[in-house]
Amino acid sequence: xxxxxxxxxxxxxxxxxxxxxxxxxxxxxxxxxxxxxxxxxxxxxxxxxxxxxxxxxxxxxxxxxxxxxxxxxxxxxxxxxxxxxxxxxxxxxxxxxxxxxxxxxxxxxxxxxxxxxxx
Length: 119
Known about the structure:
Layout: E1 2-6, E2 10-11, E3 17-24, E4 34-40, E5 46-53, E6 58-60, E7 68-73, E8 78-83, E9 92-99, E10 106-109, E11 113-117
């Protein structure tokens, strides 16, 4: 299985971030996996942001206060993440991962995509 994130790289404060994770080697609608977004911000720990299952059920992190929207495009075998109301605190490396639950363990990771929030 291979996961590859893509996104704009640089976004401005207050804007909405949109990231895509392209999955190959397995269908995101097959088997029972949780497909999650995780980020690593400077000086902080890995933060789980949310997940989506093969059926399309979503789970969001309460710490992000409903700023996230996770979806999937089954036809393209892709996952998407939207994060609104960006601030510089949202700067970091964003990963999509596969796990047996939203808590993990995670057995497949993308290489990550850098997001910088700056005016």
